[in-house]
Specification:
The chain is an all-alpha fold and about 100 residues long. Helices cover about 55% and strands about 0% of the residues. It has four helices and no strands. It has helices at about 20-30, 35-50, 60-75, 85-95. The N and C termini lie far apart (about 75 Å).
Length: about 100
């Protein structure tokens, strides 16, 4: 027979996050059958159990590629183009028969 749970006080954690990020994360968590409180509790339990942060903090391949592209292009000259110039460029492309 299971032991009855004692009435344990809970500590409150408040964080501020971007509303869109919160909504997207809650959608994912919901599809996994949990809410934010359960996810944070699980994270904290893993931190205690492993004595470390249990998440791989490596960049994804896409994030690495984006970072590399930004670094490679950061010193390239930038020219502001007016809407008229841009429309002219597209008109010139149409004249090539493509």
């Amino acid at each position: 027979m299971d032991k009855p749970r004692k009435n344990i006080r809970k500590a409150r954690i408040q964080v501020q996050v971007d509303p869109e990020l919160k909504s997207k994360a809650e959608d994912v968590l919901s599809s996994l059958g949990m809410n934010s409180t359960t996810a944070i509790t699980m994270l904290f339990k893993r931190i205690v159990a492993t004595d470390s942060y249990p998440v791989n903090l490596k960049l994804t391949e896409r994030e690495v590629a984006t970072k590399n592209l930004l670094e490679a292009t950061k010193n390239l000259p930038v020219k502001d183009i007016s809407r008229t110039e841009l429309e002219k460029m597209y008109e010139d492309d149409d004249d090539d028969g493509y």
